[in-house]
Design goal:
Helix content is about 45%, strand content about 0%. It has a domain at about 10-100. With about 200 residues, it is mostly helical.
Length: about 200
Amino acid sequence: MHPPGSDEFESTAIGWLLDVVPPDYRLHGVLRRYPVALATMARHHSKACVEGARQGYRTARTELAEALPPHALDSVLAAYRKEGARFAATARAVGLVERALRGEVFTPKMSLPATGGPRTSEPGTAKPRTAEPGTAEPGTSEPGTAEPGTSEPGAAKPRTAEPGTAEPRTAEPRTAPPADGRRAPERQRPARQRKAT
């Protein structure tokens, strides 16, 4: 599809949107004459596909448990997950095309190369990670320490153990040195490490 604002954008958008909707939509000339109407119908259709995949995934075990063996049911759920992700991506793309057809102008944003430095998110898009009440992350009980993987690029994220397996080791969180140049206070080691030394 050609970029919004180019001479061929509208015709290529119509062709792409007609591929998104069911084939019978091609029979209606009004949709080719008014691409915004086509985009609106495509948005409703793609959102319905997403909701259908979600509903199918939620009810697959109860609807198919007696008709399919367990391994086939797992494959059906995997297909729902894969197709649901594809439907969701298509719905997002249809929304963007509709906005462009309605005249919205998009401003290009600078981004870092995939292999370059640390990735940063736009303001307001990152959600802070917080521990659930009553649970403590290792090494975060002292003030001034950060949760692993949130404050510093490259910090390891804590892994969670599957039920019935041993608890994995997590990387120690790194803390930034104080701004005035003083040495940061030493962290106290857990009790089981103190006994071993």
